[in-house]
TrEMBL record, chain A:
The protein's name: Sulfate ABC transporter permease subunit CysW
Recorded topology in the membrane: Multi-pass membrane protein
Keyword line: Membrane, Sulfate transport, Transmembrane, Transmembrane helix, Transport
PANTHER family: SULFATE TRANSPORT SYSTEM PERMEASE PROTEIN, SULFATE TRANSPORT SYSTEM PERMEASE PROTEIN CYSW
Bilayer-spanning residue ranges: 32-58, 78-104, 116-145, 157-177, 263-283
Lineage: Bacteria, Pseudomonadati, Pseudomonadota, Betaproteobacteria, Rhodocyclales
Organism: Aromatoleum toluolicum
Coiled-coil stretches noted in the UniProt entry, renumbered to this chain: none
UniProtKB/TrEMBL annotation, chain B:
SUPFAM superfamilies: MetI-like
Membrane-spanning intervals of the chain: 12-37, 64-86, 98-120, 132-156, 188-209, 215-235, 242-263
Name the record gives this protein: Sulfate transport system permease protein CysT
Stated role: Part of the ABC transporter complex CysAWTP (TC 3.A.1.6.1) involved in sulfate/thiosulfate import. Probably responsible for the translocation of the substrate across the membrane.
PANTHER family: SULFATE TRANSPORT SYSTEM PERMEASE PROTEIN, SULFATE TRANSPORT SYSTEM PERMEASE PROTEIN CYST
CDD domains reported in the protein's UniProt record: TM_PBP2
Pfam families the record matches: BPD_transp_1 (PF00528)
Subunit structure: The complex is composed of two ATP-binding proteins (CysA), two transmembrane proteins (CysT and CysW) and a solute-binding protein (CysP).
Keyword Transmembrane among UniProt keywords: yes
Family: Belongs to the binding-protein-dependent transport system permease family. CysTW subfamily.
Lipid bilayer topology: Multi-pass membrane protein
């Protein structure tokens, strides 16, 4: 079905299914094997995932709360926060509307080229963020195709906010759509068809029948989309021009501070983004829990899908 | 199902498909086409000169070589982590499960400076490695560390659901027929996991090749030593060499498309092998 859905975020397990394996002789390892595998994987986890996260906060507070706080309320930092929020506030709703629209067309109807369309929607994930920035420079940059025309009307896109928004839209493009497409495909269209037959119009059907069914998936996609929108670095770096207090998003501000050897300040700003990541993961885990409601409904869901 | 193909009960097909195609074309397809059109402004010889310059070739070697190594490390340890999360109960499991996705959620620039803080010569881990003669930061090894970080969730999250869906009966049958635990893993479990494992590997590799933010801080970006291909594009752009940047971008894009095809094929294989459609 959705072979092009390259990554399955909703796959995390709910509840502890390990008992199923640990209670049976045949699916159990001898203790030393178990503890070796567990030891190696948890050490790997601690070194590669946990330590970098801890390092951000420890380095941020190395010079005390005062330095930390003054880095955050610095004029340039506040501007970066504002710009980051603006870029996310524009790109997330755009991709939300697109994602719902694409999922409706793909999940509720049969048409030729559907598979290709799903692959194309996933495309921004396989493109290097640097190239995502480059494509807009080639079109809107001073040497780009629309460059002279834009200069004539004094419209700035590259090295300005519109370019940052465009690059952010590109890199966050597939998040909502890829979350909704498999979900809506699995749910089928019987409920919507019943609503239409009973006299509801298209909008009512979507609002009262489809939306309640997809709300968790939708929320999930939006959270991930937002995290990426606020954290994008490579693509935004290419189009921003790094003008302090003008085109500096939070991740770019981290880079500037770091390159100026203001490490404590760089990590202080970075800790804001790390907090955002933690909140994202917490909400994501909560949504998964709500959406699956334990393993039982998840299996029922899979039966319906097959 | 076939009935609605001839007569659509639900409204909005043309509207939603139209919006989708228009938005997709404007944001993704047309701008990507721009790269290929721009590169056509170079003659074949110029194009070849740009993409085969020694400094650029060194970046391919580093980007592809280290990405392969990172994806391999992720495949091994990602499988172990997924196995631990599915098969064993241990305290803090839910916390660890949630944190596996950290590299997806943590902005790459933050990951980059955090890893540098750990692996620099006087860093948390670097200070113990330095006396052993192991330098991580500003060396290809640093690039490897960053790429292992960002690629890990891809393997865990593709293998985990397949492991969870595995029936215990297969293993019980094999055990009752006298198979050893290792034989069961090798001949019963691994064949079922293989397509997903390869998919995770390919996803981690694809992401690693294009990765920029987390790498540039720890890599030090020394020409011919620790420069990655995406950085080369930025360097060319900063020199206003748009055509040169585009030529390298074309090489990377073609590779990305090939990888995307490979991943789609692998996922179709996973679906066939396990009967799952996701």
């Amino acid at each position: 079905m959705s072979a092009a859905t390259t990554l399955n975020w909703t796959a995390a397990p709910r509840g502890d299914a390990a008992i199923r394996f640990e209670s049976r002789e045949a699916t159990r390892e001898v203790p030393w094997v178990k503890w070796t595998i567990l030891g190696i994987s948890l050490t790997f986890f601690a070194v590669f995932l946990l330590m970098p996260l801890v390092a951000v906060f420890v380095e941020a507070l190395r010079k005390g709360w005062e330095t930390y706080w003054s880095a955050l309320i610095h004029e340039d930092a506040l501007w970066a926060i504002k710009l980051t929020l603006t870029a996310a506030a524009i790109s997330v709703p755009l991709n939300l509307v697109f994602g719902v629209s694409a999922a409706w067309a793909i999940a509720k109807f049969e048409f030729r080229g559907k598979h290709l369309l799903i692959t194309l929607i996933d495309l921004p994930f396989s493109v290097s963020p640097v190239i995502a920035g480059l494509i807009y420079v080639l079109i809107f940059g001073a040497q780009g195709w629309l460059g002279p025309w834009l200069a004539e009307y004094d419209i700035k896109i590259i090295f300005a906010v519109p370019g940052i928004v465009l690059a952010t839209v590109f890199v966050t493009f597939p998040f909502v759509a890829r979350e909704l497409i498999p979900l809506m495909q699995a749910q089928g269209r019987e409920e919507e068809e019943a609503a239409i037959v009973l006299g509801a119009n298209g909008w009512q059907t979507f609002w009262y029948v489809t939306l309640p069914n997809i709300k968790w998936g939708l929320l999930y996609g939006v959270i991930l989309c937002n995290a990426r929108a606020m954290g994008e670095f490579g693509a935004v770096s290419v189009v921003s021009g790094h003008i302090r207090g003008q085109t500096n998003t939070l991740p770019l501000h981290v880079e500037i501070l770091y390159n100026e050897y203001q490490f404590a300040a760089a990590f202080a700003v970075a800790s804001l983004l790390a907090l955002l990541a933690l909140v994202t993961l917490a909400v994501k885990t909560w949504v998964e829990h709500r959406a699956s409601g334990g393993n039982q409904s998840r299996e029922a869901h899979q039966d319906a899908a097959s | 199902m076939s009935a609605s193909r001839t007569f659509r009960v639900l409204p909005g097909f043309h509207l939603t498909l139209g919006c989708t195609l228009a938005y997709l074309s404007l944001i993704v397809l047309l701008p990507l086409a721009a790269v290929f059109l721009k590169s056509a402004s170079l003659s074949a010889a110029e194009f070849w000169n740009v993409i085969s310059a020694p400094r650029v070739v060194a970046t391919y070697r580093l980007s592809f070589g280290v990405s392969l190594a990172a994806a391999t490390i992720n495949a091994v340890f990602g499988l172990m982590l997924a196995w631990s999360l599915v098969r064993y109960s241990f305290p803090g499991k839910r916390f660890i499960d949630a944190l596996i996705d950290l590299p997806f959620a943590l902005p790459t620039a933050v990951a980059g400076i955090a890893l540098t803080a750990l692996y620099a010569k006087n860093g948390w881990i670097g200070q113990y490695l330095d006396p052993l003669g192991i330098q991580v930061a500003f060396k290809p090894l640093g690039v490897l560390v960053a790429l292992v970080f960002i690629g890990l969730p891809f393997v865990v999250r593709t293998v985990q659901p397949i492991l969870e869906d595995l029936d215990t009966e297969l293993e019980e049958a094999a055990a009752s027929l006298g198979a050893q635990r290792w034989q069961i893993f090798r001949h019963v479990i691994l064949p079922v996991l293989l397509p997903a494992l390869l998919t995770g590997f390919a996803l981690a590799f694809a992401r690693a090749v294009g990765e920029y933010g987390s790498v540039i801080f720890i890599a030090g970006n020394i020409p011919m030593v620790s420069e990655i291909t995406p950085l080369m594009i930025i360097t060319k752009l900063e020199q206003y060499d748009y055509a040169g940047a585009t030529a390298i971008a074309v090489v990377m894009l073609v590779l990305s498309f090939l990888l995307l095809l490979l991943i789609n094929g692998l996922q179709a294989w996973t679906a066939k092998r396990t009967g799952r459609d996701r």
